[in-house]
Amino acid sequence: MPHSSTCAPSPEALARSIVAKHHYAGTLPATRLSWGLLTRDDRLVDDSTPLSDGLGLVGVACLSVPMSASVLSNVFPRLEPFAESLELGRLVLTDPVPANAESWFLTRVWRQAAAAGLRGIVSFADPLPRQRVITRALPDGTASDIVETVSPGHVGACYQGAGATACGRSTARTLIYLPRHGTVLSERTLSKIRLQESGSAAAERHLVTLGATPRLISQDPRMWLRSALDDVGAIRLRHPGNFRYQCALLHQMTLRRLRAVRDHHALLTTVILSRVPLLGQASGFRWACVTLTFDFWAGGSWLISS
Q: pTM of the entire structure?
């Protein structure tokens, strides 16, 4: 990425707007911290690009609270979930942003997250391709359905490029998938409707916008949910599990410190007084200064001075 781009904390409202427009999930999970990729490069922005501090916001990374603390503690058992570890809930950049920008952006997010007190980040890569059906009007006045790929699925190459380590896959599960929209209805959303918990009204409105018939006041929520899922064309889809990655931020900081020492003091030298063999003689010793030079990355070597 050029010097015209930077990483800075982003208001949640701006992050939500970017996710809604450019991420295949379209929704923002419960977010603790979010950062934006800001640029003054005119090639990456247009009239619809939101602004933050006068710069174009062309991407966001959101650290969120997963549904269960075990998502974090299974990977970082010694860290306190939600306080020292979080999940990378969303990462999205706009299409004009060049390749490899994700890793460039994430390395700076990791640095600022570590400065905020976090020590571990868990992230997931969804290998499942996502498609949606778009109905477009043709010049002759008829309509045609076009299948558009929302996400080809990914294996987490950008996480690896940012220093994260692969650690298996998440649990295989069955998803409630909406083929026409390329989105998934989370089990938590469905549970809110069934039990009429906080947020159930918003979940019902979401289904209505997707094509479900509004629920009558006297209608049982469970019965309505069954018919609503039929209305929106929901299917059950078996998912093999996402690829899981961990990024130990303290480890990243330690490596940076070691590299700084390497760059400024690549060789550590100490001088000691030692007995060394007399050169050219079968026996005998003399006192001499012996210089011990230790190279951080290549090991140590002895040099004898006269």
A: 0.73
